[in-house]
Amino acid sequence: MATPASAADWARKLRREPPDFGISWVLMGGSSVVKSSGKDFPRALRVPCSVGNATERLEMWMIDRLGVCSWSLQPAGVDELVERLGACGERRVQLALCPLLEHADAWASLRAHTEAGRVVVCSGMMETIGEDYTSLERIKVTGGVRPDEHWGANLDRATRCADLAHELGLSLVTLHAGFIPEDDPQLHDRMAGRLCRIAEVFNAKDITVGLETGQERAETLLELLSTISTRARVGVNFDPANMILYGMGDPIEAMRALREHIVQVHMKDAIASDTPGTWGTEVPAGEGQVDWDAFFEIVQGLPQGVDVVIEREAGERRVEDIRTAANLAREQIERVQS
């Protein structure tokens, strides 16, 4: 079998001859080829890859690190999830964990699907209790760990989600912290303490917590991370569209500022509102104001390998929009590696 000369050639070959993901992949040290059962195939275009105690930057990027948010597909259970992932042409997923806790029967066959290779769970997501997205003002007071009335229940939910994520073998779970106040030190410290407590629950299971961007400026999030990182392992799930939707600054500038803390990225697009204090509009990837060239150049240069997870929370053509986003992602991967 002839070996393509470049990573860009690998990307084109992947489109023509998708690999059999049911086999076990073994990364050959120092090589840009993945071998399994005597068959050469690229697992990646470019990824910073940890080997033992040393971090080695390989000139590749994991093509199988592209995934989809399960909640974007609105599945009632695991069978619908697998079917809709297949319609998107994908199999990797960031999995909303709370439906598994609340509707266990509908998700009982998840392990069978993962063992058969029909779905790969790359990370989890915990939704906090009581979130109300009807307006920016409502989510400001109801989102994340901010509401006092839900704190006990949210801590209990975090414990249950951590147990489930550990059972699934996950190393990352993301959530919205809630609006971090810049002018209320007492509330700021209370929220920081709660986030530390939740992170400690997950860290005890060897799971990193990723705080999703959007509800605060990058500078505010950096200050929060400096406060809690001495006690808990916490990173950033970077969503460029959320920065636009919430009116929290330029997403590319924010991404550069947060780059060392990024543990996962969401691929989502949006158009800013013309009216301060109101929502922007989510649109299919490529139709909004996110600079995808700059976005993927930053991801390509991150000092740590991260998953690119497509999220689509609006519209009636989600499968088609996710396929469009996946095609855009692969074009960008090929571009940054060429």
Description:
The protein is an alpha/beta fold. It is 38% helix and 19% strand. Strands 6-7-8-9-10-11-12-15 form an eight-stranded parallel beta barrel. The chain has a three-stranded antiparallel beta sheet with strand order 1-2-3, with no helix packed on it. The chain has a two-stranded antiparallel sheet with strand order 4-5. Helix 8 links the parallel strand 10 and strand 11. Helix 11 (292-300) packs across helix 12 (318-337). The longest helix has 20 residues, at 318-337.
Reconstruct the topology from this structure.
Layout: H1 7-16, E1 26-27, E2 34-36, E3 39-41, E4 47-51, E5 54-58, E6 66-69, H2 78-88, E7 92-96, H3 98-102, H4 110-115, E8 120-125, H5 136-142, H6 151-167, E9 172-175, H7 185-203, E10 208-212, H8 218-228, E11 234-238, H9 240-245, H10 251-258, E12 262-267, E13 269-271, E14 281-283, H11 292-300, E15 307-310, H12 318-337
Parallel strand pairs: 6-7, 6-15, 7-8, 8-9, 9-10, 10-11, 11-12, 12-15
Antiparallel strand pairs: 1-2, 2-3, 4-5, 13-14
Helix pairs in contact: 2-12, 6-7, 8-10, 11-12
**Strand residues, percent:** 15-25%
Biggest sheet, spatial arrangement of strands:
6-7-8-9-10-11-12-15
Judging by the overall fold, what is the CATH architecture? Alpha-Beta Barrel
Count up the domains.
Answer: 1
- Average pLDDT works out at 83
Helical run tally: 12
Radius of gyration: 20 Å
Kindly name the structural category: alpha/beta
- Tell me the span between the first and last alpha carbons: 23 Å
CATH class annotation: Alpha Beta
Gross morphology is globular
Percent helix, as a range, is 25-40%
E-strand count: 15
The CATH superfamily is identified as Divalent-metal-dependent TIM barrel enzymes
> How would you sum up the major sheet?
8 strands, parallel, barrel
N-to-C series of helices and strands: HEEEEEEHEHHEHHEHEHEHHEEEHEH
CATH topology (level 3) name: TIM Barrel
Low-confidence stretches: 1-63
